[in-house]
Specification:
Length: 213
């Protein structure tokens, strides 16, 4: 089968994608006329660092002058808004079974800040399930290439499972097969290799393997 499987985190391991969407809406509630555009931008760029998103929103959707201190404060506030909810969020259906009977060595490539990701995994008791878990600010294509180099894997032998366009694009950038987790908080279409949740992942991996043979 495959040498390894890399997962995005929010919306793939935890049902936390909607939490992040609501947090962006609350973070910029003082600009209600811009909230629909902010929400759309966030959803279209799921998996990208919150710092990158906040800088873009301030400059291009709100027309605010450049202010790194303000953007850092907003990013810190965002973390405060999501922390408790993320810790309480349920696992995506199928995660427990997939982690209990590994299909290959697992890793995480997430847009969540790296240190925050480590804390969440530790609190949720998930650290030992993944040989590596990497977050922002490192871009996902860089994370994926680093993971491949560290294990000596070929990109075509590793599957990336994500729920955002940035995940799909990162997989394409490095030449990895991509499985889309399609759900109501995401923007990925039902095309190519896709699943409703991780209960369907083993079957989809068999489909990909069959298509390669």
């Amino acid at each position: 089968m495959f040498s390894g499987i890399v997962f995005d985190f929010d919306g793939v391991i935890l049902e936390s994608a909607g939490i992040k969407t609501r947090a962006f809406e609350r973070l910029f509630a003082a600009w209600p006329e811009a909230v629909p555009a902010i929400r759309a931008y966030h959803l279209a760029h799921a998996g990208i660092s919150r710092h990158v998103k906040i800088a873009h929103i301030c400059a291009h959707l709100l027309g605010l002058p450049d202010d790194p201190a303000r953007e850092a404060a907003l990013a810190e506030r965002f973390g405060d808004l999501v922390w408790d909810e993320v810790l309480a969020a349920p696992l995506v259906p199928g995660v427990e079974a997939v982690l209990a009977a590994p299909l290959a060595p697992y890793a995480i490539a997430s847009g969540t800040p790296h240190d925050e990701l480590q804390r969440i995994l530790a609190v949720r008791g998930l650290t030992g399930a993944f040989w590596a878990a990497c977050g922002s600010p490192t871009p996902k294509p860089v994370i994926l290439r680093d993971l491949l180099a560290r294990r000596g894997w070929r990109a075509v032998d590793v599957v990336f499972v994500g729920d955002g366009e940035s995940d799909r694009d990162a997989a394409a950038d490095v030449g990895m097969p991509f499985v889309a987790r399609v759900h109501h908080d995401g923007t990925l279409p039902r095309e190519g290799w896709w699943i409703h949740d991780l209960t369907e992942l083993p079957a989809r991996l068999r489909d990909i393997e069959a298509a390669r043979s």
